């Protein structure tokens, strides 16, 4: 089945390659332009079709800077087409970088919410939101002992009645989360958010390895259809450049009726239960790094052996000379 989808999507990709209207993810799902951001972001014609931006957001041809590395900045980017897919997957390519080595902040968020284009205290966007927030928090506001390091990635589902608690870095309202290291690296870092059959799975590729590492998987997450996708970031006393390099939305629906899509516009966002964060585990793909480690160990062993052989023969030589003279 997967094979068939893959083939048809690849075929589609091939047919419209010049127009590059359709792209596929690893599973052969179609990317939807209406909800995606494709380079160049700026050029002749419309800047960012399907998206609005606000605040300090700056659009260049290669990236969209939500905030510059300056104090008290805030910016956001919102898709203006409601999501009419029951199941979907998003890949966001980003780069967070700045002058600070010890102190930097505050971070950015990926949103799937009822509200759009509303500024507020949660990484530049509205608090008491309806929907899902995936927060990439670079600064620890918590003074006491923390149960995790920063940067930290967490998810929050809200029906409009909860406030995001900055003092606790959202830990009391989070569904799940994991520690992430994505600041000040040369390459583009990526996050994948998949929502399928009420299961929310978040993965990252922060090491330029071209493979996904699971951050968490949470079941029983109910999100309505018809909400909007957005991105926002903020700086305070501390700052960073929060750059978006790509945003790809894939429709993962398979036999979902129009009636169900419409019915789900009326449900209230809800997360029934959550799993504790899983241990970081690499995908079971061919381990390039294992091979590397093996060759490094082999190299060290060979060098050590050569040194030992050299040392032994050298001392033997000296001892031999001593005896002769
Ligand atoms: C919203 O969430 C709160 C807290 O979980 C709950 O008490 C309330 O009933 C929910 N509201 C709706 C409309 O579901
Ligand atoms: Ca924080």
From TrEMBL:
PROSITE patterns: L_LECTIN_LIKE. It comes from the Eukaryota. The chain crosses the membrane at residues 293-315. InterPro entries: ConA-like_dom_sf (IPR013320), Intracellular_Lectin-GPT (IPR051136), Lectin_leg (IPR005052), VIP36_lectin (IPR035664). Residues 1-24 form the signal peptide. GO terms for cellular component: COPII-coated ER to Golgi transport vesicle; endoplasmic reticulum membrane; endoplasmic reticulum-Golgi intermediate compartment; Golgi membrane. It is a single-pass type I membrane protein; Single-pass membrane protein. Keywords: Disulfide bond, Glycoprotein, Golgi apparatus, Lectin, Membrane, Metal-binding, Signal, Transmembrane, Transmembrane helix. Its main location: membrane. This is GL24136. It comes from Drosophila persimilis (Fruit fly).
């Amino acid at each position: 089945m997967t094979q068939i989808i893959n083939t048809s999507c690849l075929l589609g990709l091939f047919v419209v390659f010049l127009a590059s209207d359709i792209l596929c993810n690893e599973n052969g799902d179609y990317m939807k332009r209406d909800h995606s951001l494709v380079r160049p972001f700026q050029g002749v014609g419309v800047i960012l079709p399907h998206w609005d931006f606000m605040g300090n957001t700056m659009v260049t041809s290669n990236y969209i800077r939500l905030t510059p590395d300056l104090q008290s900045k805030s910016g956001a980017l919102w898709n203006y087409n409601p999501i009419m897919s029951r199941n979907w997957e998003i890949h966001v390519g980003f780069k967070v970088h700045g002058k600070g080595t010890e102190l930097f902040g505050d971070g950015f968020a990926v949103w799937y919410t009822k509200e759009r284009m509303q500024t507020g205290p949660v990484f530049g966007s509205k608090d008491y939101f309806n929907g899902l927030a995936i927060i990439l928090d670079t600064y620890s506001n918590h003074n006491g002992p923390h149960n995790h390091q920063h940067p930290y990635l967490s998810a929050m589902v809200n029906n409009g009645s909860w406030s995001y608690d900055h003092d606790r870095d959202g830990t009391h309202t989070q569904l799940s989360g994991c520690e992430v290291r994505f600041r000040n690296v040369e390459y583009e870092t990526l996050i994948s958010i998949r929502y399928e059959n009420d299961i929310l799975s978040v993965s990252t590729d922060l090491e330029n390895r071209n493979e996904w590492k699971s951050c968490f998987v949470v079941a029983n997450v109910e999100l309505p259809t018809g909400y909007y996708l957005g991105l926002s970031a903020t700086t305070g006393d501390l700052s960073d450049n929060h750059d978006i390099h790509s945003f790809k939305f894939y429709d993962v629906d398979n036999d979902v009726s129009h009636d169900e899509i419409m019915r789900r516009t009326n449900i209230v966002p809800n997360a029934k239960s959550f799993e504790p964060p899983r241990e970081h585990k690499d995908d079971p793909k061919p381990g390039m790094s294992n091979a590397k480690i093996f060759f490094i160990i082999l190299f060290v062993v060979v060098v050590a052996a050569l040194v030992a052989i050299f040392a032994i023969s050298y001392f033997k030589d000296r001892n031999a000379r001593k005896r002769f003279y």
